[in-house]
Amino acid sequence: MNTKILLSATILSVLLAGTIGATSVAFAQYMGNVGGAGETGAYTLEEVLKIQSDRIQIAEDNPSTGSGTPYLDANGVVGASVIAGAVFGGIAGAFFIRGRSGKYAAMGRG
């Protein structure tokens, strides 16, 4: 009886996940709305190239501003890595310390 319930719940969850996953399709290749005559809407290729060249020019004019990525901030790359390492390292350390003693520890160690 439990096997039938488990199998039906698994099949239902796979079908449900497939249904939800199909609704989140990304259309990232389209930059604008395409009309009936083939014309594009807002944010055309020319606009994209102009915006990107302006960004490059601004970055070259102000070299002291950096890339804008806060590496040492808690919300940045290194800060988040240090916080995650501390959390998971603390959990691993607790497991290692608890593993040295207890019912199934090897005799003669600890």
Descriptive notes:
55% of the residues lie in helices and 0% in strands. It has helices spanning 2-22, 45-61, 77-99. The longest helix is centred in the C-terminal third of the chain and has 23 residues, at 77-99. The mean pLDDT is 76.
Mean pLDDT: 76
Largest sheet: none
Give the ordered list of helices and strands.
HHH
**What oligomerization state is this entry in?**
single chain
Distance between the termini: 46 Å
Beta percentage is under 5%
Rg for CA atoms: 27 Å
Total beta-strand segments: 0
The residue fraction in helices comes out at 55-70%
Name the overall outline: flat
Quick description:
This protein is an all-alpha fold and 110 residues long.
List keywords for this structure.
110 residues, mainly alpha, 3 helices
Topology:
Blueprint: H1 2-22, H2 45-61, H3 77-99
